[in-house]
Write a structure and sequence with these properties.
Largest sheet: 5 strands, antiparallel
Mean pLDDT: 88
Strand order of the largest sheet: 2-9-4-7-10
Shape: globular
Order of helices and strands: EEHEEEEEEEHHEHHHHHHHHH
Oligomer: single chain
Helix content: 40-55%
Number of helices: 12
Structural class: alpha+beta
Low-confidence stretches: none
Radius of gyration: 20 Å
Length: 292
């Protein structure tokens, strides 16, 4: 696979914040138009729901390939690396939306942290009941899209999308062991911590820095993360740094010291030691292992 010095990232209406931060496409038409880009590793600054009607081929998300079955739905989180199988003739629907389109209150955070953050299984196969309900909501969204100048236009689409995501969340939970109910303040703060990590993982922020952002003590932050995920704050921070290092090693031609610098390491040798401590192999060995 051809590598470049950066992973291409695409945006939704970045230059036009006044536009509706939501789009829906026919998948076949989208791939016919954008296939040259879609079949190369890339990421988005927005969220993507990919519903493939017909089985065949695979879809690549980060370092895994997922077989596409009939009525498979993929949930691609922002900044996640993915790409399409260029030999597959997919039919389906593609939904894009920016975080700001949904994030109206803390409760809405869960919409992007369940189906969009199950790294072990970022997909589900819809049953007949879920297909019928999902089609119903998508049909209503499509019917509302032309009414751009009508009162409450964005609110209608936002509420329909939320309802669709709740239906998909229910479907995902049927065969998932990683349910994430928002039942207490710890869980809301944990999600906020995860969001801060996504924003600041390459800045060298410490646990104390993140605790300050949440207006809690480092000890309280540790209690929060252990209560919700069973992991320490430092473990969650390091996991995000290592994930990005793996992405840059696998999908770019950046030099090791350039990757370290991009991840906030001023000393390349320390980055090598840090990477090796977590993955038990050097960045160079990891790149050789994952190169195609």
């Amino acid at each position: 696979m051809e590598e470049s010095s950066k992973i291409q990232q695409y945006h939704l209406h970045k230059e036009h914040p006044e536009k509706l931060q939501f789009d829906i496409y026919d998948l076949r038409s989208y791939l016919d138009k954008s296939g040259a880009h879609a079949t190369k590793p890339h990421s988005h600054s927005f969220y993507q729901i990919l519903w493939v009607f017909n089985k065949g081929g695979v879809h690549y998300i980060d370092f895994d390939e997922h077989t596409v079955g009939e009525n498979t739905m993929f949930f691609i989180a922002k900044n996640q690396i993915h790409y399409f199988d260029d030999s597959a003739k997919h039919e389906g629907i593609l939904i894009h939306f920016n975080e700001i389109f949904l994030l109206q209150s803390d409760v809405d955070i869960f919409l992007k942290y369940n189906v969009f953050n199950n790294k072990s299984k970022p997909l589900c196969c819809l049953d007949s009941e879920s297909i019928e309900i999902a089609n119903h909501y998508i049909s209503m969204i499509k019917s509302e899209l032309p009414n751009r100048k009508e009162f409450g236009h964005s609110n209608i689409i936002r509420n329909l999308l939320k309802s669709l995501l709740i239906v998909l969340e229910r479907s995902q939970r049927v065969n998932s062991d990683s349910n994430f109910p928002l039942t207490n303040q710890y869980e809301l703060q944990f999600l906020q911590f995860r969001e801060h990590i996504e924003q600041y993982y390459n800045t060298g922020y410490t646990v104390s820095d993140y605790a300050n952002l949440l207006h809690v003590s480092p000890k309280t932050l540790t209690t929060i993360t252990k209560n919700v995920s069973g992991k320490s704050p430092s473990k969650l921070i390091s996991e995000r740094i290592i994930l990005e290092a793996q992405r840059l090693l696998s999908f770019t031609s950046l030099k090791i010291n350039e990757i370290g610098y991009q991840l906030g390491f001023e000393d390349a040798s320390y980055f090598v030691k840090y990477f090796k401590r977590h993955l038990k192999k050097s960045p160079t060995d990891y790149r050789k292992m994952t190169s195609v």
